Amino acid sequence: MIKLNQVTKTYDGTPVVDSVSLDLPRQGLTAIIGPNGAGKSTLLSMVARLLPMSAGTVTVDGLDVTKTPGDTLAKKLAILRQDNHTSARLTVRDLVGFGRFPHSKGRLTSADAEKIDEAIAFLGLDALQHRFIDELSGGQRQRAYVAMVLCQDTEFVLLDEPLNSLDMKHAVGMMKLMRRAVTELGKTVVVVLHDINFASCYADHILLMQDGRLAHAGPPVDVITPEIIKSVYDIDIAVHSIAGQLISVYYA
Amino acid sequence: MTHRFAIPAALLLVVLLACASLTIGVSDLDLTALLRGGGTDRQTLILFASRIPRTIALILSGASMAIAGLLLQMLARNRFVEPSTVGTIESASLGLLATLVFWPAAPVMVKMGIAALFALGGTTLFLRILSLIKWRDVLIVPLVGLMLSGVIESITDFFAYRFELLQALANWRTGDFSGVLRGRYELLWLSFAMALITYVAADRFTVAGLGESFATNLGLAYRRILALGLTIIAIVSAIVVVSVGMVPFLGLVVPNVVRMAVGDNMRRGLPYVALLGAGLVLVSDIAGRLIRFPYEIPIGTVMGVLGSVIFLYLLLKRTPANA
Amino acid sequence: MPDALAAPVPAPLRNPTIVIAVLAAVTGLLILGFMTIGARGDWSFILAFRGRKLFALLLVGYAVALSTVIFQTITQNRILTPAIMGFDALFVLLQSVLVFLFGGLAVLTFNAQAMFAIETLVMSAFAALIYGFLFFGARRSLHLVMLVGIVLGTLFRSLTDFLVRLIDPNEFATLQDMFYAGFNAVETDILGLCCIVLLTASLVAWRKFPVWDVLAIGRDSAVNLGVAYHREVLIALALVTLLVSTSTALVGPVTFFGLLVANLAYLITPSHKHIHIVPVAALIAAICLIGGQMLLERVFAFNTSLSIIIEFAGGIVFILLLLRGKAR
């Protein structure tokens, strides 16, 4: 269980995340959505201790993220942020292999090799594993990074807008993969998403943020309603049930 | 945030500093006596052949360098650059070295012209490199400039060593006004003329500072304005290097200080930049003359210390969110 | 989601160990050549004289290579080098402060090793202060740290110039010699101490290689993988300071050599791991310095321009790198 208590982040006196308290449920896919500037990425980064908090606490299974040694936390939660760039000449397999660092500190064993194989297979990267990551397309590279994060073998997986550089087919593929990570691997996945329809189709639980605060939380059927969306996004939408999925139509 | 009396006050301050500059020196000079028509021949000679030219040179070069710095910041769209930190001055220096090697007897105008051409080349190279690299934060621009400057410096060192001109090079590497005499500084008037042109074209430069696509959209002949701006910067840099040597950081700190008070409008800021530039140079030179009187500490050294301290302050006062 | 279009590629063909072995062989040959070619006269003298010079070149090459590779890993940038941080300028400033306070003659009679030790300690303390402050303040960018370093370098150089002009001209000559040591006027008194320093640094570095491999993929990924980022960067910077002190004490400021060596190493090493890149870089450095020195002495008969030529070559490499878009 990840518990957030009054988590706050201020820049120059302006709160970007304002006293957010919530419990992230175990097992299942939680989507964090909200307008630009709502504080979604900032919140996620603070949970994963990538960004220091101005106030508040975050505990992961009882461990305080600011006080626990980095490598202990690295075995419990993994995060992938938006921009991942490196000039190092790494093959896909090298990159995915880094996921084992918290466990083996760089000296890879045969058990590690198995985990790497599994992660690569899960993401469908077997054919690409010996190619250099700077030779891959954006989508392929993204999958390599996700494979690294899965290879870290943590219970909690946090992803910050992972669909940004992906086209339709690969975006859907990525969401399906995350669902499989939940159902097959028993992971708890938290994703920041831009598109509310991906959230409503794939998430078990949605956190809707506005101006640094948690405006609404609950299963898609409770959160994705025209009234709530209007109050947060300031736009009129129609919500239709199509093939059992809640689809919001806001284009016209 | 500008006070109605700000410019007249600044002007007065510069005039006072100029007078101070006239009186300080190894020989005794009684200004009031001289003004009344008295004073010895020697004193008159010193006044007109050394003190006045020196003071005028200080004002002109200070104003021009500061304005050239402001202009470069506009064109590079980054506030942490100036001719001495992007390779312009070093290129001018290389040009000057080339003249010394191949045409030592060249007249001063020719020396300046060649130095200006090299300076133009160096600045263009810098801007070209900027357009090629994708940078993430604003600080990589000055970093790249400084490294490029270092490269050109080592190239200059290489040739200076080959042609045994290291000592000469060292002389103009540190800006020094002590050698300014009547007949050896007049070129600085030309650099001031460049500064005036900048003022006239200030609005166009402001628009150019918004970026090529923006400026072109607004109907500006971007490339021509860019070329004009670069030429002005190159000529001013060349003139200053040929006449007095290198004075670091002036063109960087002065526009930034002015910008903090007055904002980014070039036409409004230019007079302040000119006055503050002149004032700072006068103060540094006077300090250099006084600290170890009767010996002089060259302005290049004084500005090196003063300018770096101010630059550090400017860098560190950026809020954490901007860093 | 298998990619039907991707052709399977076999595991990397080139073996980094082979690259290292080849470079080591070339280095060995050059060392042999350096010690024996054109040798006339008393062998024990030649051995001692050339041996010391050779040893110094090897130490300098190793120090520069290692410090640059570490530095570029933690800054995640392949065009910045530790020399631009102003370390060398600080070193020279410390020398001039000592002369200012105690007079040139007194400084000359100080024990060379003691002076080196003191200066290195002061430099490390100072660097730790500056960079610790910059890092532990709000999360400041590394670019800011670099820029501050460069400006500090200019400040130190100007302060040195300032001090020098305040000092009596008689002392100036002492300083001239101190400041402008080149590869030919290597400070051999401190070779032993430098060797110890480098050995210690190497032991620490060896253990840190896996961590630095992770640092190379970025701060966020490193923290995610459990690396104690701030601490590791500080340790790395401390090592860099130590290594730069050593090379500056031996031959004076060397700005672009590290850049040249590190980038050549990245180019020819078929591995991303520090355990391969560092030896390759060190060997390339040795080859350049020994080979370069031999060329200059035997072929061109210049003696003190090795540093300038190396800086020049390194500078060209720098511009080429920029044009190829590696600045990031």
Q: Could you name the ranges of chain B where pLDDT drops below 50 across 5 or more consecutive residues?
A: 319-323
Oligomeric status: heterotrimer
Q: Work out the helix count of chain A.
A: 10
Indicate the radius of gyration of chain B in whole angstroms. 20 Å
- CATH fold group of chain B: ABC transporter involved in vitamin B12 uptake, BtuC
Would you report the number of β strands of chain B?
Answer: 0
Radius of gyration of chain A, in angstroms, nearest whole number:
18 Å
CATH superfamily annotation of chain B: ABC transporter involved in vitamin B12 uptake, BtuC
Query: What class would the helix/strand composition of chain A place it in?
Result: alpha/beta
Give an overview in words.
Chain A contains ten helices and twelve strands. With 252 residues, chain A is of the alpha/beta class. Chain A has a six-stranded mixed beta sheet with strand order 6-7-8-3-9-10, with helices on both faces. The model of chain A has no long low-confidence stretch (mean pLDDT 91). Chain B is mainly α and 323 residues long. Chain B has a single domain (3-322), classed as Orthogonal Bundle (ABC transporter involved in vitamin B12 uptake, BtuC). Mean pLDDT of chain B is 82; it is low at 319-323. Chain C has one domain (53-324): ABC transporter involved in vitamin B12 uptake, BtuC (Orthogonal Bundle), CATH 1.10.3470. Chain C is built from 13 helices and no strands. The two termini of chain C are 31 Å apart. The B-C interface holds B 80, 129, 132-137, 139-140, 142-144, 146-148, 150-152, 154-155, 157-158, 161, 174, 248-249, 292, 295, 297, 300-305, 308-309, 311-312, 315-316, 318-321, 323 and C 79-80, 84, 137-141, 143-144, 146-148, 150-152, 154-155, 157-159, 161-162, 165-166, 255-256, 305, 308-309, 311-312, 314-316, 318-319, 322-323, 325, 327-328.
Secondary structure elements and pairings:
The complex is a heterotrimer of chains A (252), B (323) and C (328).
Chain A: E1 2-11, E2 14-24, E3 28-33, H1 40-47, E4 55-60, E5 63-64, H2 70-74, E6 77-80, H3 92-98, H4 101-104, H5 110-122, H6 138-151, E7 156-160, H7 168-183, E8 188-192, H8 196-202, E9 205-210, E10 213-218, H9 220-223, H10 226-233, E11 238-242, E12 245-249
Parallel strand pairs in A: 3-8, 3-9, 6-7, 7-8
Antiparallel strand pairs in A: 1-2, 1-4, 4-5, 9-10, 11-12
Helix pairs in contact in A: 3-6, 5-6
Chain B: H1 6-23, H2 31-35, H3 41-76, H4 88-102, H5 108-132, H6 140-162, H7 166-173, H8 187-200, H9 202-208, H10 212-217, H11 222-243, H12 250-262, H13 266-291, H14 299-316
Helix pairs in contact in B: 1-3, 1-13, 3-8, 3-11, 3-12, 3-13, 4-5, 4-6, 4-11, 5-11, 8-11, 12-13, 12-14, 13-14
Chain C: H1 16-36, H2 43-75, H3 87-102, H4 104-109, H5 112-136, H6 142-166, H7 169-179, H8 191-215, H9 219-224, H10 229-251, H11 257-268, H12 274-300, H13 306-323
